[in-house]
Amino acid sequence: MNHPDDFALDGNAVAGPLSEIFGVDVTSIRVTCEDCGATAPLARVAAYVRGPGSVLRCRSCTSVIGRFARSRDSIWLDLRGSTSWQLRATS
What we know:
Elements: E1 9-10, H1 15-22, E2 30-33, E3 39-41, E4 46-48, E5 53-57, E6 64-70, E7 75-78, E8 82-86
Antiparallel strand pairs: 1-4, 2-3, 2-8, 4-5, 5-6, 6-7
């Protein structure tokens, strides 16, 4: 039987689609998990991308920290499960 981690990629797997949404390289965005308080760069979260959308999970506690999907004419973004997404400002 497969373990859920067998399907997890790192956050780099969603960098392209999320960079389209945010307009910047998102791999260094620091995401804080609402459940356990762990903070890590997006590149280090667990990304599940085999479904119709993508699910991001905290590597510390496995809680869902975000979801997104794209349809023909919309992008759906749900960041419930995270308390913050910190992006360094550029000068």
